[in-house]
Amino acid sequence: MKKLLAILLGGTMVLHAGLALAAGTVRIGALFSVTGPASFLGEPEKNTLEMLVKDINSKGGVKGTKLELVVYDTQGDSTKAKQLVNKLIKNDKVVAIVGPSTTGDTMAIIEDVEKAGIPLVSCAAGIKITEPVKKWVFKTPANDHVAAEKIFNYMATKKQKSIALLTVSDAFGSSGREQLKTLAKQKGFTIVADEVYGPKDTDMTPQLTKIKGAKPDAIICWGTNPGPAVVTRNVKQLGLKIPLYQSHGVASKKYIELAGADNAEGVLLPAGKLAIYDKLKPSDPQQKVLREYDQSYRKNYNVEASTFGGYAYDAFLMITDAIKKGATTPEQIRSNIEQSKKLVGVSGVFTMSPADHNGLDLSAFEMVRITKGDWELAR
């Protein structure tokens, strides 16, 4: 936290002329799935932002300028997200927006922020959020094709060549499925089964039974909880001995809790380094940031920090770093974010450009294995 505070407190800030706020205050908006099926994403994101704002303001703000945070709960509903983003833009007159938590909610509001000219730093992973590049839209989770490539590279070392896909039929799952199929072809993997499940499905045994018959070397499940946890339990119930890979969309202890530690034993997935920061080399550029974030989060909320909260941390870091460099308007904040170079965050080391509004590569992930209800580096 000290490192983050040093970054945030190191610059000046001037209010955007359109803001009807008290002198010395700037307003940042946020849209998170605080309740509903995706609350495991939105709750730590909301907690993280509130923690950061409270900390900064307790130190006098950013060079004397206090931050005001306006958070709305989308409940994972794209229609509600669209209503709320317009409230943030038109009523609250924010200079930048963090979130939403999900790919679907994010895609629903892109047109609104682009039209209004307000920078959006999404906490969702779908590649379509930033590819093709939109002028006002960025995101902090690594693109799903990066996570997919991390899985395939690891599978290659285990000589697993035939794979079964089991993906959720929402925006995140559809994007992941598309990337997995494209990369599988490029890297010489054979897809022997391609199954889909619904976001609200509670039993995936029919799909897994078909997959069992296809005899793949491995299964890749792509989704966010609770679906992947159901899949994990079903795999155990069916007695399948096929290696199970999950996406980065379940890289939190909530997944292990929902699936059950015994059921999740041996499951592999690409995860941000926060999950295993205590196992990183001291020379890793993220190690200090990760440790300080986790310690601060534990102190404030009595629970370990999650990768998902880290997405909000990084979004806030980008916005405040842009302001520190002299940005005084939404356009200047957007421009400075786009010029971010080697910005060390929770999700990775970000280097943006006009052609890349995500700024992360394969180094953002480590392959991890679940062992006895915890993470370990997969070797």
UniProtKB/TrEMBL annotation:
User: Which InterPro entries does the entry link to?
Assistant: BCAA_transport (IPR051010), Leu-bd (IPR028081), Leu_Ile_Val-bd (IPR000709), Peripla_BP_I (IPR028082)
Outline the extent of the Leucine-binding protein domain: 25-359
Keywords recorded for this protein, A-Z: Amino-acid transport, Signal, Transport
Which N-terminal stretch is annotated as signal sequence? 1-22
The record's comment on protein family reads: Belongs to the leucine-binding protein family.
Checking PANTHER family in the record gives: BLR7848 PROTEIN, LEUCINE-SPECIFIC-BINDING PROTEIN
According to UniProt, the name of this protein is ABC transporter substrate-binding protein
